[in-house]
Amino acid sequence: MYSTVDVSKSFVEAQVTAAPDVIVVGGGVVGTACARQLALAGRRVRLVEFAETGEAWRASAGLLAPQIEVSHDSGLFQLGIAGREFFHANAGPLKESTGVDLGLWEGGILKAAVAEAEVERLKERVAWQRQHGHHCEWLDPEEVRREWPWLGTTLGCFVAPRDGCLDPVRLVEALRADAVRLGVQITADRIKALTRSGDRVTGVQGREWHPADQVVLAAGAWTGRIANLPRPVSVEPVRGQLVAYPWPASAAPTIVFGYGSYLLPRGALGIAGSTMEHAGFVADVTEAGLDSIRGRVELLIPALSGVKVLRAWAGLRPGTPDGLPIVGPEPHLAGLWYATGHGRNGILLSGITGVIIAQQMSGESAMDEAELLRPDRFWSWEEGGDRETPVIPQV
Prior knowledge:
Blueprint lengths: L8 H9 L4 E4 L3 H12 L4 E5 L13 E2 L1 H4 L6 H23 L10 E4 L3 H16 L5 E3 L1 H7 L9 E4 L3 E2 L2 H14 L3 E4 L4 E5 L2 E6 L3 E3 L2 E4 L18 E11 L8 E4 L2 E6 L2 E5 L13 H14 L10 E9 L6 E4 L6 E5 L5 H16 L17 E3 L6 E3 L5
Parallel strand pairs: 1-2, 1-12, 2-8, 4-14, 12-19
Antiparallel strand pairs: 3-7, 4-6, 5-6, 9-10, 10-11, 13-16, 13-17, 14-15, 15-16, 18-19, 20-21
C-alpha cells in the first residue's frame, strides 16, 4: 500500500518543467515525506526548505517504538504502528531507488521495569497488545539477566520485537533523493508569509513569491511564525538533548529503555536521550540536560558510568497541547494544509503523514485515526462572527 512505484522518465521531465501545483514548506523529515508522497500521487511539487538551528530531525534518535513508547489507549498508537510499518515496507524500495540505506534496526526494543508499579503497568500493556494481535512478551528478571547481563538491576522487561529505529539523516537523504527522482523541485528560501486571495491560498512569500493552489506547512516548531495564517497554530518548540557514548564493549547491540532514558546503537556509538524542555527557540546543550541524561542512562547501563561523552547536541521538537500532530486541511482557507506538531514522533510518523496528506488532498479516505489530527480540533468558531474560542481537548 505504501511502497515506492516505478515512474516513467517522461513523467519526471513533465514534473520538472511544469509550474508546481503544491508548495511544501519545510525540508525536514515530514516535509520531505509529504513532498515525495504527493509526487507519487501525480502532483507537481516544489519543496521550499530553510535551514534552522535545532531542526528536530537533526537531533533525533530515529526511534520507531510505538509499542514501547505509546499508550495503547491513545489515538497515537495505531498511527504509530502504521508509521512503523511504512518504514518496514519502504526501507528496501528506497535503498533500491536511491542507494541510501536507512539503517533500519529490526532487532526489537526492550523496556526495563525498575519499580513495582512499572511491572504491573507493563504486564498490562503486554496483555492488551497480545490480545490485539501485536507481538510482544514479558521476561522475568532471571531471563533478563541471562540474556542481557550488562543491564542494571531490573524487575523484568517488556520486549517489542517489531519496534526499532533508523538513521534520521539517512532517512531525509533518501526521501529527498527519491522526491527529486519523482520530479519534486527543491529550492531554498525563508518563507515569511502565506499569500491569499479572499478565502483561498495563492502561495507563499519569502525572498521571492512561490505561487501554488495548494500549500502544505511542514515547518515544525517554526510553523506558527509564518505570517498571514488564518488562525494561531498550536505548535511550540520543546527542546530535546542527546548524547553519544562509545558503545560499551561488554554489551551486545540492543535498544533498551529504562529510568526514563534509552540507549540505541548507531555504528560504534551508543545514542542516549533525552530531555523535554520548554526553552523557546534556544537549541543549546546544557550541563543540567547532560547531567540528567547521564544520570539516568548510567543506571540503565552501569558500564557507561564514568565513560566520556563523545558528542552532545539538541533539537527543537514541535509540540502541541494534546501531544498529537496537526495534519490535514485548514477549514477556513481553501488550499492550506498542515503537517506539523509531531513532537517526539516526527521520524515515526513522517511517512504515514505524507500518505495521509496525499490521500486527503486527492479526496480519498485516510485511516480513521487521521480524524484525531484535524487542525480545527483546538478551536470552535462562533456562528456569525470572526471571534474564536479555544477548546483544549482532554488528555
